[in-house]
């Protein structure tokens, strides 16, 4: 498993946390996804594939949040 932390500056509350975690956690290749509200980021363990990262970014985008990169 590989770890990545994505910065999502729009995260502000528990609703953001649950929306993002429930969108990312079920994706193929994702082991865990945990939002840190205070740090405005998402810590993810995944299979290391670039396509998984792209799917994660797309899923976060679909929830109305933008990943800062
Ligand atoms: Cu929120």
Which secondary structure elements does this structure contain, and how are they paired or packed?
Elements: E1 2-7, H1 14-24, E2 30-36, E3 41-46, H2 50-62
Antiparallel strand pairs: 1-3, 2-3
Identify every distinct bound molecule in the structure, by name, code or SMILES: copper (II) ion
- Low-pLDDT parts are none
Order of helices and strands: EHEEH
Mind summarizing the main beta sheet?
3 strands, antiparallel
Reported by name, the CATH topology is Alpha-Beta Plaits
Can you count the helices? 2
Summary of the model, kept short:
The protein has 69 residues and is an alpha+beta fold. The protein contains two helices and three strands; from the N terminus they run E-H-E-E-H. Strands 1-3-2 form a three-stranded antiparallel beta sheet.
Describe it for me?
The chain is of the alpha+beta class and 69 residues long. It has a single domain (2-62), classed as 2-Layer Sandwich (Alpha-Beta Plaits), CATH 3.30.70.100. The chain is built from 2 helices and 3 strands. It has a 3-stranded antiparallel beta sheet. The longest helix is centred in the C-terminal third of the chain and has 13 residues, at 50-62. The structure holds copper (II) ion (CU).
């Amino acid at each position: 498993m590989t770890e990545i932390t994505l910065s999502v500056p729009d995260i502000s509350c528990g609703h953001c946390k649950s929306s993002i975690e429930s969108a990312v956690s079920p994706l193929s290749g994702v082991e865990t996804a945990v939002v840190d509200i205070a740090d405005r980021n998402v810590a993810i363990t995944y299979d290391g594939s670039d396509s998984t990262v792209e799917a994660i970014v797309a899923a976060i985008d679909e929830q109305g949040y933008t990943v800062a990169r």
